[in-house]
Amino acid sequence: MANKASSSSLPSINEDAASVDEVPLYGSESGWVEARTHCDHLASLSQDLTHIPTPDTQCNRCQHPDENWLCLCCKDVLCSRFVNKHMLEHYQQSDHCLALSYSDLSVWCFSCDAYLDAQVILSLRPAYEIAYFLKFGEAPPLRS
Ligand SMILES: [Zn+2]
Ligand SMILES: [Zn+2]
Ligand SMILES: [Zn+2]
C-alpha cells in the first residue's frame, strides 16, 4: 500500500460512469483478500441474525442515509468512520466489536482489528446472506 501514488497506467474511461456503485464487492483493498477465518469474539453475536434492518437504514444517531454498518451484536445501524464514526463510538462504548458493512457486506471485528470471512465463519454466514439478499435481491454466489 506504500506505492499508491503510481496509478497513472490506468486509463480514465470511467468519467461518464460516475453513477455506478463506487464500492466494488471484492475490491483489491476491501480487505476480503486477507479476511480472517477465525475470531474469538463471536460469542457476542446477536442470537437472531435472520432478522436484520435493511441496507438503506439510516444511522441511528445522525440519520446518515447509506453505507452504514450493522452491529452484529445488537443490530443497531450506525455510520462509518468516514462519516461520523458512530459505529466506532458504539464499539468503544458498548464493546460490540462485530459489524457488517452495508456498503460492501464485509464483516469487521474491531477487537481483532481485521475483516472476517463471513462465508467461512458459519455463525456469520446467515447475516451475510440475508444482508446480501436485502441489498441485491438475490442469494449470494456460492463459494466452496
Ligand atoms: Zn452516524
Ligand atoms: Zn451493538
Ligand atoms: Zn474478533
UniProtKB/TrEMBL annotation:
Alphabetical UniProt keywords: Metal-binding, Zinc, Zinc-finger
Coiled-coil intervals: none
Domain UBP-type: 37-137
Keyword Transmembrane: no
Gene3D superfamilies recorded: Zinc/RING finger domain, C3HC4 (zinc finger) (3.30.40.10)
SMART domains attached to this UniProt entry: ZnF_UBP
UniProt xrefs under SUPFAM superfamilies: RING/U-box
Identification of the protein by name: UBP-type domain-containing protein
Lineage: superkingdom: Eukaryota
GO molecular function: zinc ion binding
Record-linked Pfam families: zf-UBP (PF02148)
